[in-house]
UniProtKB/TrEMBL annotation:
It catalyses: L-histidine = trans-urocanate + NH4(+). It comes from Saccharopolyspora cebuensis. The lineage of its organism: Bacteria, Bacillati, Actinomycetota, Actinomycetes, Pseudonocardiales. Its EC number is 4.3.1.3. It comes from the Bacteria. PANTHER family: HISTIDINE AMMONIA-LYASE. It holds the Pfam family Lyase_aromatic. One of its GO terms (molecular function) is histidine ammonia-lyase activity. Belongs to the PAL/histidase family. This is Histidine ammonia-lyase.
Amino acid sequence: MPEIAIGPEPLTRDQVVDVARRGAAVALSPAAERGIAATREHIAALAADPTATYGVSTGFGALAVRRIPAELRAAMQRSFVRSHAAGAGAEVESEVVRAMALLRLRTIASGRTGVRPATAHALVALLNAGITPVVHEHGSLGCSGDLAPLAAVALALTGEGEAHDATGARGRAADLLAAAGITPVVLAEKEGLALTNGTDGMLGMLVLALHDLTRLVEVADVTAAMSVEALLGTDRVFAADLQRLRPHPGQAVSAARMRAALADSPIVASHRGPECSLVQDAYSLRCAPQVHGAARDTLAHATGVADRELAAAIDNPVVLDDGRVESNGNFHGAPLGYALDFLAIAVADVASMAERRTDRMLDVARSHGLPPFLADDPGVDSGHMIAHYTQAGIVSELKRIAVPASVDSLPTSAMQEDHVSLGWSAARKLRRALDGLTEVLAVELLTAARALDLRAPLHPGPVTGAVRDLLREHVPGPGPDRHLAPEIAAAAALIRTGAVHTATAHLPDGSRR
């Protein structure tokens, strides 16, 4: 994988994913080197100026009223990072920490923060060595930046705290830095703020979520098509001329994907004639493009938010082109928090519709000839009855997770920080929601594939059949009850690893919309 140059230009979402998940190496661009050095010279001049500058020669937050003498400023920066690395709870995932460190580096590379070149190089080395500081679940209110999480990264740069090495082993940060040949940083004026005062945790999780949810909505189109086919539904409602009557772009893409997935299906063809008495399918079948399409359009909105944030330089105070160092409120996480919450709503609704389709396939009164619960010997066997319970429990949890975090606020820092975004909390719950949606779609995939098998001697279409066959490489077909949890896990793994996406990569993807 090629090395990624970090400079004043925005990173792409794919670059963030490559560094966070795939360990891509990074390096500062020449433009970044020049900008960082020039801005640091300006900060050094301000540090010697008798006029107080926030974060350079003063305390922080509600303590900004105190002027700090030069001989205490290194201790102040060290104390700042130590005190702000106050997280609690479970460890945050490695990919989130790496994304967060990368995005902080990108803001430093913008030349707006005043960080010294040596500190920026240490952050580059940390990423390239695969050292991941231990960051805890709780500690960010999504305002004044993701303070505690970013402070944990800064603390590791100074050789304190704990981290994981490239193999995942946990140890003292000082030992891991030494093993990688990285000299711990002694922070100078402004650097404590510059390393912690950003929206990088929220943004990193948003970028990763956009990547994952895009794939999951594509999978949902396919599992919905499989369910339509299994339930003897019609593909006529997905016709392009019907979709054009309501010109939402995401809806058009989802409908096109479902049409393509159902093309040339012998099962669908078997009930197209005048003898078929079915007039309209249930909403969970007929309206799938409308719901999945709305999720796609929500993704498009959130992608715009993420791309603008990837072009931003978030710090307080920030160094402007004319040399002014100004306080600002750009660290407030509201734009990200709203987008993250909006995505969680879409996730819950896509999952809710998938659960309704699953339920129909299991209900003998509504499944058009399928056995109760798709059981081999109903009564002796329970089939997928309890798999649906699992799915329903997850969907109920997703509805609770969809309650917005960003409508909440709790004042802190002696009322100096009297309104916060809770965007970090929105991001954390969205990650849990994406895991839940994956499991929900796995149950629908399992159920729809079994139902398609039970329609024999009729065969599914080429696309839905290919997905069914992929699953059958890991999960046997219909038969007496088996231990079902491993089969749900196998279906979920096919979704998480992208195998289902790969099997349907030729379907329309909306890239031309």
